[in-house]
Design a protein that fits this description.
The chain has about 400 residues and is α/β, with parallel strands linked by helices. The chain is built from 14 helices and 19 strands. It folds into two domains: about 170 residues, Flavin prenyltransferase-like (Rossmann fold, 3-Layer(aba) Sandwich); about 200 residues, CoaB-like (Rossmann fold, 3-Layer(aba) Sandwich), CATH 3.40.50.10300.
């Protein structure tokens, strides 16, 4: 299931130069499952192709109060709308909607609209910093309207500053956030994710092929559902997100330190990280030369982060662990659940590593059992989080 499945988004495009980015925004919104209906100011038609927007949205694009082919467009278009998104929102459009002016299709629809509204400003920094614009933006915020952006960057005129339209992916993330039920509000969730690296010398290390995608998806979904989330992450290539805090770590010792710092405040601890089970006994501060390596290294068991904190688990906390098993899965999972004082344990499969989908089995000490085959990691995140609502 996609996060915007069944959601109707009305997208208002005003005549900022950033309007050229809107076809890509429409494409990304539809990719997440949304139905998108686009309306333009008349001047925006000079900056973005109506025909292109119709092809990408699969819906007719409107730009005028009259002559659109429907009698009362600002009423008809608002039927069953889940979100009204205005991007880019120029200083002119912001001024109109914040002061109750309704002289074009976007501003008239704004007055008739009952759905949540997101406004994404875009203008030159000189305009953005004008007291009249900032006053209008503050007024919109007082109305309960979400303002996303603008951000710092280079403008079409060649200057730079704060005023650029937020990136399309971040706008989509903001829409998903607005339309996701906040059933985890007030929950504090701590998540570990990705591999750890244990070094022989400054260059070489032992690790595993965990991508961190499962933990990242759980963190993102939990944050979208209203939780206060901290992700302690050993994966290198996962993107940053404004939805939650992310602590980057390298070794198991680094990860353990972060977990111990945060665990006392957590309502839920989800230990997804693939911590290296072994580490070299000795570390060389200098690169080990090939002729000195030989054929073997002495290894020792690494710290067990989950076990180290589970002994201090409070009765009001929920702990969830992950176990990658290739044989005797149920027996090994039950043993780990008892040893580590877990409420639930998730059996992971080797072929899940690095993939966007996976197969999982969840066991709980309350005799809970569920299995998910070939499910996207984003959808699995929602299923797992349903257990901690």
């Amino acid at each position: 299931m996609k996060p915007l499945d069944g959601k109707k988004i009305l997208l208002g495009v005003s005549s900022g130069i950033a309007a050229y980015k809107i076809p890509n925004l429409v494409r990304k919104l539809r990719k997440e499952g949304a139905t998108v209906h686009v309306i333009l100011t008349e001047n925006a038609e000079y900056l973005v192709s109506k025909k292109v927007l119709e092809v990408l949205s699969k819906n007719k694009v409107y730009s005028r109060l009259f002559g659109n082919g429907i009698d009362i467009p600002h009423i008809e278009l608002l039927k069953e709308v889940d979100l009204f998104l205005i991007a880019p929102a120029t200083a002119n459009t912001i001024g109109k909607i914040s002061n109750g002016i309704a002289d074009d299709l976007i501003s008239t629809i704004f007055l008739a609209n009952k759905a949540p509204v997101i406004v994404c400003p875009s203008m030159n920094e000189l305009m953005w910093k004008k007291i009249t614009v900032s006053t209008n933006v503050r007024r919109l915020r007082r109305y309960g309207i979400k303002i996303l952006g603008p951000v710092k960057g280079e403008f079409a005129c060649g200057s730079s500053g704060v005023g650029r339209l937020l990136k399309e992916d971040e706008i989509v993330e903001g829409c998903i956030d607005e339309l996701t039920k906040k059933d985890l509000k007030k929950k504090k969730i701590l998540i570990t994710s990705g591999p750890t690296k244990e070094f022989f010398d400054p260059i070489r290390y032992i690790s595993n092929s965990s991508s961190g995608k499962t933990g990242y998806n759980i963190a993102k979904k939990a944050a979208l559902r209203g939780a206060d989330v901290i992700l302690v992450n050993g994966a290198k290539d996962l993107p940053q997100s404004k939805l939650f805090k992310q602590k980057k770590v390298v070794t198991a010792k680094d990860m353990q330190r972060e977990v111990q710092n945060q665990i006392g405040e957590a309502d839920v601890f989800i230990s997804v990280a693939a911590v290296s089970d072994f580490k070299p006994v000795n570390y060389s501060s200098e690169k080990i030369k090939k002729e000195n390596i030989g054929f073997s290294f002495n290894m020792e068991l690494n710290i067990d982060i989950l076990k180290s904190v589970s002994s201090e688990k409070r009765s009001d906390q929920i702990f969830i662990g992950f176990a990658l098993e290739t044989e005797n899965m149920f027996e090994n999972a039950q043993k780990k659940m008892i040893e580590k004082n877990l409420d639930y344990i998730v059996i992971n499969k080797p072929f899940n590593l690095g993939s966007d989908t996976g197969s999982y089995q969840i066991y709980g000490k309350d005799n809970h059992y569920s299995t998910f085959e070939n499910i996207s990691k984003a959808d699995f995140a929602d299923k797992l989080l349903d257990l901690v609502r």
